[in-house]
Design brief:
single chain, alpha+beta, Arc Repressor Mutant, subunit A, 5 helices, globular, DNA-binding, WH-like_DNA-bd_sf, MethylDNA_cys_MeTrfase_DNAb
DNA sequence: AAGGTGACTAACA
DNA sequence: ATGTTAGCCACCT
């Protein structure tokens, strides 16, 4: 199973109402340095994927997506729909990590 | 088939 | 404190 597959598997474990960061996922698979690759993997997902990619944000708690198919505003809406509060200021969407960050259980 | 191209992040200057 | 850089992987020419 390659890196991308691992990413999808882990992202799928993030429960509704919680979020995870790219670095967090990367650290679980290999090294924390692969954070960017996590983003690459999500970018490669088909539009109709079942993977809850919207629950993955950057270490600042900000929506970091760069994909014309899914504008940031759309990701923000998806998260709000799941009960997550998304603040919008300075033209940036942000989530309170202290509140919503998901902690993966060991193993 | 080799190389460019991305949803990041922590470490440095 | 703000800007730059290295490390990382699969997919598409």
């Amino acid at each position: 199973m390659n890196f991308y597959q691992e990413v999808y598997k882990l992202v799928a474990k993030v429960p509704k109402g919680k979020v995870a960061t790219y670095g967090q996922i990367a650290a679980l698979i290999s090294t924390p340095r692969a954070a960017q690759v996590v983003g690459f993997a999500l970018r490669a997902l088909p539009q109709n994927s079942e993977v809850p990619w919207q629950r993955v944000i950057n270490s600042q708690g900000c929506i970091s997506i760069q994909n014309p198919r899914w504008p940031q505003s759309e990701q923000a809406r998806l998260l709000k729909r799941e009960g997550i509060k998304v603040a919008f200021s300075h033209n940036v969407y942000r989530v309170d990590l202290d509140k919503y960050l998901y902690s993966f259980r060991a193993r």
